[in-house]
Design goal:
single chain; 327 residues; alpha+beta; 11-stranded antiparallel beta sheet; 6 helices; 18 strands; 17% helix
């Protein structure tokens, strides 16, 4: 089926009335956007799947904004701290998201689009009709070709025929799908799986845990005194340790500090400092500091991929661990 055959014409852009605020823009409306090609990108700032698409969305904004494309990021939060508009503003600046952002902490815009995914892209033509969408990573060529076609359809001249090329680095580096053997893993009792520190955990209560002598692939465990909450594990004392047996190039962890202060931490891989396998947020000795709630890249393996054991020890109390992601 051709790209033309895949484009949709029956749904109109619902608009952004449910947004509680805007970043980088005054409020945008479907009426005000009429005549523009509009790309709506649903995101939440800790989502590694979205971060791996960001280089493309940013490049489309930069390349086509003067030819009639408006990119609108809709920030719909997954974790509690992502509801905080100041955190979103910080993330937008840190991640160089310079196009308009609709803040959607109540999921009102999400529901208006009947959306179910991070990330999700919807592309509307100059008449406000949604003509193409894509859920998840990938689909970059089709999305850009849809933008190009709809700009030409709107009468824009000089629209390029070639496609953007983006840097494959940092959080935005595409996953090594061929070696990825570990899934997204939540660290609270509502969605957590493969937790092996205790046969019975006292949910929402402080409890002492221990790491077994051996972890199987994708099992995780805690050591020290922790509270296993609905959506996170919280270290109640210094030297709380979290271990995960993984198979992937990248180890990322969504985590945050206590309300007041920061938490230093140390990372080991198979019991040793990470050396040249360290990620963006640790040094070669595995040292890092947890000073705001966000996604942290802790390991990037430059060599061959095999099963390894990751450990992070928090050197002060109060660290909150939400979710592992891998790449």
């Amino acid at each position: 089926m051709s790209l033309f055959g895949k484009l949709r014409s029956e749904t109109h852009l619902p608009g952004f009335d449910g947004a509680t605020g805007w970043v980088n823009s005054e409020p945008l409306t479907p009426e005000g956007l009429r005549g523009k090609v509009v790309l709506v990108d649903f995101w939440t700032y800790t989502c590694i799947n979205w971060l791996r698409t960001l280089g493309y969305v940013r490049a489309w904004h930069e390349r086509y904004k003067d030819q009639g494309l408006v990119v609108v990021g809709v920030h719909t939060p997954e974790f509690p701290f992502e509801h905080d508009a100041d955190n979103v503003r910080w993330a937008a600046k840190d991640e160089r998201v310079e196009y308009p952002i609709a803040l959607d902490p109540d999921f009102a815009v999400w529901r208006a689009f009947d959306n179910n995914y991070w990330p999700a892209v919807y592309i509307a033509d100059a008449e406000g009709r949604i003509r193409h969408n894509h859920f998840g990573e990938g689909g970059y060529e089709e999305c850009e070709m849809a933008v190009q076609m709809l700009l030409r359809e709107a009468g824009r001249e000089g629209v390029p025929d070639d496609l953007v090329s983006v840097a494959d680095e940092g959080f935005e580096a595409q996953a090594d799908w061929g070696t990825l053997g570990s899934p997204e893993t939540y660290l609270g009792h509502e969605q957590g799986q493969n937790f092996v520190s205790a046969n019975v955990a006292e949910f929402d209560e402080p409890q002492d845990f221990g790491v077994p002598d051996r972890l199987e692939r994708n099992q995780w465990a805690l050591s020290g005194n922790w509270t296993l909450g609905p959506g996170k594990s919280v270290a109640n004392e210094a030297d709380g340790r979290l271990a995960f047996r993984f198979h992937a190039r990248d180890v990322n962890l969504v985590m945050g500090p206590p309300a007041a202060g920061s938490v230093p931490f140390n990372v080991l891989v198979d019991g040793e400092p990470p050396g040249d396998t360290h990620g963006l947020d640790v040094d070669e000795e595995g040292n890092g500091t947890l000073d705001r709630p966000r996604l942290h890249q802790l390991i990037r393996e430059p060599g061959s991929i095999t099963d390894r054991t990751f450990e992070i020890t928090f050197l002060a109390p109060g660290a909150e661990a939400y979710c592992f992601t891998f790449g």
